[in-house]
Amino acid sequence: MTFSTSRTGAAASPPVGREPAVKLGKTAAGPEFSALAQASILIVDDEPGMRNFLVRTLAPRCKLVDEAADTDQASRKLDSNRYDVVILDNIMPGKNGVDWLAEQRAVGFFADAILITAYADLDTAIQALRAGAADFVLKPFRSNQILNAVARCLDRVRLQRENYVLRYALRASSDRTFLRDNLIGQSAATLRVRETIARVARLPTSVLLTGESGTGKEVAARSIHSLSDRADKPFVPVNCAAIPPEMIEAELFGHIKGAFTGADSGREGLFLYAHGGTLFLDEIGELPLPMQSKLLRVLEDRRVRPVGSEREVPVDLRFIFATNAELQKEVEKGRFRADLFYRLNVMQIRLPLLKDRGDDVQELAAIFMSKLSVQLGMPPVPIDASVRAALASYDWPGNVRELRNLIERTLILGAFPDDFAGPRTNGQSAPADSLAELERRHILGVLKEVNGNREEAARRLGISRKTIDRKCALWDV
């Protein structure tokens, strides 16, 4: 919590009439206030002169500035709008600002609050801190003081959200070197996907990405975001299968202090962190049924209710969903809500299998070799004719993810595994085996490397443990 105590221009009341208009225009151009351009501000003060001064100061710089003459009016505005910062007078008729702020925190208010008061003492500062005030500005103050306070709040919140989203993304996926922002390849299948993405990216329509694991659904989602008008806003990826069912509501919607055991403080959820940008819900077929109904309501109302909160919070989001399951079959089996499926299935883009992408595998292998060799600090391994033949003939059950893992393993070993590249005689590549035999030898080779650990083999190959079990049963291994 910070304290702005400068008494520049020390009149007993806000210098409404004496604040030079030219100074307001001059500070508007300052880059230090650029964060205000997209901000929504609520001013709560019973003095019309102070509200007028703050509106004149903030309105030319902010996206939205609302005002309330008392706490009751402010509460109603919070019920219907979402604000980034609330500027709150402490001494008001009926209820003071600190008490009202504490009440709002208890029912699901997460935005930063700046307390303004002419009566400052240690007790008030302590109460403001406990109530969750982010800043404390003493009256009288000049326009630059309140602008600096608002800018600090916005910058702090932005950094906190970016930090949380980045840490969440790192926890949710171990594959951080994947070429996440580019859909690589010139095959007909890849070009069709790229063309569809270009058509839908600038529209607000929700998108459902389907296809087997490892086909690049997150890559496609990031491409949609980067081509949309939200490209400079957050892109928040969420793996629904990676969050424990008992925690998924709090992770997505947030929670207030005391909402459940261990909730020592309130926190915005991933939906609110993605506000203004794109929320990518991967493995949507793994979402528990109770959460499916809540997600449906969010899609319809564009409002979320944090766990334990009495208030719904408006959100502005572009939704992208992904699944490797056949959702229509999941609906028939009763594991996925039909109404949610029809709500998601507005625009479906199916990502092709790597084996159906022709020469893309060669281009991807070369790019992975170049990128990963730099990351691992190891010399690239030449991709000779025998390896290219094996790349072209292999079935790639783990798709692009399996290819990436193969290249990383090759760099670590210093050569392509013999069971993948095939035997070599006098520098000539041997005729490629059947696809089934190549697949068998590759999977068994990886199992041998991990001493029979099927879970680890599945992770390295980018396929499911069930696929490993099924193949081993077929081969009587």
Note the main attributes of this structure:
elongated, 4 domains, 477 residues, alpha/beta, 46% helix, Rossmann fold
Global shape: elongated
Q: What would CATH call the architecture of the largest domain?
A: 3-Layer(aba) Sandwich
Number of helices: 20
Q: Give the CATH H-level superfamily of the largest domain.
A: P-loop containing nucleotide triphosphate hydrolases
> Mean of residue pLDDT?
83
Assign the CATH topology of the largest domain.
Answer: Rossmann fold
CATH class descriptor of the largest domain: Alpha Beta
Query: How large a portion of the residues is in β-strands, by DSSP E?
Result: 5-15%
Strand order of the largest sheet: 1-6-5-4-2-3
Task: Give a concise summary.
By secondary structure, this protein is an alpha/beta fold. The protein has helices spanning 21-28, 48-58, 71-80, 97-106, 122-131, 143-172, 188-200, 217-227, 248-253, 270-273, 289-301, 327-332, 338-344, 360-376, 385-393, 399-413, 418-421, 435-449, 454-461, 465-475; strands at residues 2-4, 40-44, 64-68, 85-89, 112-117, 135-138, 207-210, 235-239, 254-255, 267-268, 278-282, 303-304, 313-314, 318-323, 347-350, 424-425, 428-429. It is built from 20 helices and 17 strands.
